[in-house]
From TrEMBL:
GO terms for molecular function: 3-isopropylmalate dehydrogenase activity; magnesium ion binding; NAD binding. Belongs to the isocitrate and isopropylmalate dehydrogenases family. LeuB type 1 subfamily. Substrate binds at residues 98, 108, 136, 232. NAD(+) binds at residues 78-91, 295-307. InterPro entries: IsoCit/isopropylmalate_DH_CS, IsoPropMal-DH-like_dom, Isopropylmalate_DH. The record marks 143, 199 as: Important for catalysis. This is 3-isopropylmalate dehydrogenase. Binds 1 Mg(2+) or Mn(2+) ion per subunit. Pfam families: Iso_dh.
Length: 373
């Protein structure tokens, strides 16, 4: 019998609670069959927290997130909250978690399961066997840089609307070096290649990014093969020939764009998990939050159509990175692969030939059945 791991479950909004319900089934299965013990607590984030408390994340929930071994989040946001003041929008709750937990390294693997190679919008031969990881910086850059805001542009009579919107791309060398180390370490466990992406041709922060990544490479990870690309070319290369990459290292905003694009290499946004990791805590495990890359999918929420695999695979990442249960993680990933190979598909994975899609909960049940087989 192993230790008990504390896990804070934040289902969030839209399809978040629907996909999280399937993860809880998977957690229960591991407790019943694998000798693993989880101490689960549930709380609110995003629009659901706003509805209950008037803020997208309470201080109590924030404190709880800081104290557990790992946080598992569904998704936040939705059109109901579009008109809210910016400071209390659902997304601010997620961004506060990332910032205050200092989760600087966001690992976003994009793997194309063989059974899904025909569901990508790209040709099978471009995506079959694909296995890459995007390492996205998550706590700095233009998402958090100061100054920011919307102001009156008082001294500029030529500005027709009279206002100015400001965000600042800002990176320190230390912020770049620590996330670069995460990428190089990831590459050492994989195929040994890092491609770093920025816009050093137009942005000073991009020049600093390139220099610092090169410094970390030359001084600490000379065994890893490092290349640099401008991020616009990088996104083109990602859809042209994704197999050329192993680990992509990039900043907060470019990583957001690249990872949504990478979703289409795998067949669906409903397939992409992620881990957001910080520095090691006293027990040696990193501060961690696991969440699917997708959002709350308001267009399909409440209909049992959501694909729970991204959230389930996020829990597999938790098993691997927070709980040292690499074998259990692989078992869960193999169960997902097997279910897909059997042709079980949620609606987002239906090809033009059609067929009957399974519901969110049927997909969860099939994955549990494959775990038990
Ligand atoms: N981490 C997060 O919580 C997160 C991430 C992205 C977007 N959002 C928020 O979600 C809301 C909706 O954003 P959006 O529509 O741009 O992005 P989205 O990811 O919610 O949806 C984009 C498209 O992908 C589909 N999709 C997404 N996940 C799916 C799944 N698991 N199964 C099947 N189909 C799936 C949706 O139906 C939609 O057509 C916004 O408020 C946005 O800010 C939250
Ligand atoms: C919801 C939003 C704050 C978030 C981001 O922009 O980082 C999302 O798009 C993501 O990819 O996790
Ligand atoms: Mg995104």
């Amino acid at each position: 019998m192993s230790d008990s791991y504390s896990l804070l479950i934040l289902p969030g909004d839209g399809i978040g609670p629907e996909v999280m319900a399937e993860v809880v089934k998977v957690i229960d299965w591991f407790q019943a069959n694998h000798g693993l013990k989880f101490d689960l607590s549930h709380d609110l984030v995003g629009g659901s927290a706003y509805d209950a408390h008037g803020v997208p994340l309470t201080d109590e929930t924030m404190a709880r997130a800081q104290s557990v071994d790992a946080v598992l989040l569904g998704a936040v946001g939705g059109p109901r909250y579009d008109a809210l003041d910016f400071s209390v929008k659902p997304e601010r709750g997620l961004l506060r978690l990332r910032k205050e937990m200092d989760l600087f390294a966001n690992l976003r693997p994009a793997q194309c399961f063989d059974a899904l190679a025909d569901f990508s919008s790209l040709k099978r031969e471009v995506v079959a066997g694909l296995d890459i990881v995007i390492v996205r910086e998550l706590t700095s850059g233009v998402y958090f840089g100061q100054p920011r805001g919307i102001h009156a542009d008082d001294n500029n009579p030529e500005n027709e609307g009279g206002r100015v919107g400001i965000n600042t791309q800002r990176y320190t060398s230390g912020e770049i070096r620590r996330v670069a180390r995460s990428a190089f370490e990831m590459a050492q466990r994989r195929r040994g290649k890092v491609c770093s992406m920025e816009k050093a041709n137009v942005m000073e922060s991009g020049i600093l990014w390139r220099e610092e990544v090169q410094w970390v490479h030359d001084n600490e990870y000379p065994d890893v093969e490092l290349s640099h690309m401008y991020a616009d070319n990088g996104l083109m290369q990602l859809v042209r020939q994704p197999g050329q990459f192993d680990v992509i290292l990039t900043d907060n905003l470019f990583g957001d764009l690249l990872s949504d694009a990478a979703a289409m290499l795998t067949g669906s946004l409903g397939m992409l998990p992620s881990a957001s990791l910080g520095a090691p805590m006293e027990n040696g495990r990193p501060k961690a939050l696991y969440e699917p890359v997708h959002g709350s999918a308001p267009d399909i929420a409440g209909q049992g159509k959501a694909n729970p695999i991204a959230c389930i695979l996020s829990f597999a990442m938790a098993l691997r990175y927070s709980f040292d249960q690499g074998e259990a993680a692989s078992q869960l990933e193999r169960a997902v692969e097997r279910v897909l190979a059997e042709g079980v598909r949620t609606a987002d994975l239906m090809g033009p030939e059609g067929g009957r899609p399974v519901s969110t909960s049927e997909m969860g049940d099939r994955i549990i059945a494959a775990l038990s087989a």
